Amino acid sequence: MAHMAQNQAARKKGKKVTIENFYGGSTQGKEENEEEIQKNSEHSSQNGNYQQALEDLKLELIQKMEIWKEKWEKEISCLTDKNAQLEKEVEASNRRANKAEKRNQSLTTRIKHLEESKMIKQQESIKQTQKINELEENIKYLTEKVTDLENRGRRENLRIIGLPEKTEINNKLDIILQEIIKENCPHVLEQGGKIEIERIHRTPSILNPQKTTPRNVIAKFKSFQVKEKILQEAKKKSFRYKGAPIRITHDLAANTLRDCKAWNTIFRKARELGLQPRINYPAKLTIYFQGKVWAFNKIEDFQAFAKKRPELCGKFDFQAQKARET
């Protein structure tokens, strides 16, 4: 082995390898061979150390690679778990979003239905208001019609106010009426000195049983013309019965009487001003002003008329009139 190493070293140095050199035939050759062997031995020792260092480095690298591999596997596993968790959270968020969207759609649908229902109710309310207005107009028309028919049914009647309520009078009201006519307007009497009366009676006291004033007397005549003659005489002068004052008026329906009484304050003031006021059927005020006869169906019409005339403006207390109506 030593000879072979020497020969290889000789070849590397370019020396010619001889048998003597190979087998150490001279002293000089032997010394050179020993030096070469020592150098080769040292070189072999260095090569062995280098190989060992490489093996150690390789082992260290393998160990580090194993550590890095474990770390990367852990990081990958952690990232995978986080990704799975994120996917779950995204899925849960999507489910919540879908639920919110469905709820929003449901609320939108409900709001739409409510708006449609509100619109339908508004339309129904408008229709009901129109129907109510129509019914009120019909009621007003029918009330006026009934009132007119009631007044027409009373056109032959007269109302006697202030006649003392005594038993001897109540038992013979027809005779008392004949006496009143003879005392106040005898020229109205027909042939025979009497007037045909269909019926005569006191008004009922059901509405106010505590009333102490005498009840009115209602007389129905067979002739409308005779009744009008008596009424005209009653407008000209005050009637009396045995010296006691009484009043003769139309026998009108309750609604008409109420409307007539609404003119009372204005009527009295107009009479004070010399306007010659009259209450005509059914409840219409007429006055004589500036050479003309003016007629008013409503108090508001007369109020507007008076405000435009300086002679009448401020003369009538319409606030007191309204308070009395209230």
From TrEMBL:
Looking at the record, the residues that make up the L1 transposable element RRM domain are 155-251
Superkingdom per UniProt: Eukaryota
Where are the residues of the annotated region Disordered?
Answer: 1-49
What are the protein's GO molecular function terms?
A: single-stranded RNA binding
Q: Which GO terms describe its biological process?
A: retrotransposition
Under the heading Pfam families, the entry gives: Tnp_22_dsRBD, Transposase_22
Family annotation (InterPro entries): L1_C, L1_dsRBD, L1_RRM_dom, Transposase_22
Q: Which residues form the L1 transposable element dsRBD-like domain?
A: 254-312
One GO cellular component this record assigns the protein to is: ribonucleoprotein complex
PANTHER family (UniProt xref): L1 TRANSPOSABLE ELEMENT-RELATED
- Name of protein: L1 transposable element RRM domain-containing protein
- In its UniProt entry, the species of origin is given as Monodelphis domestica
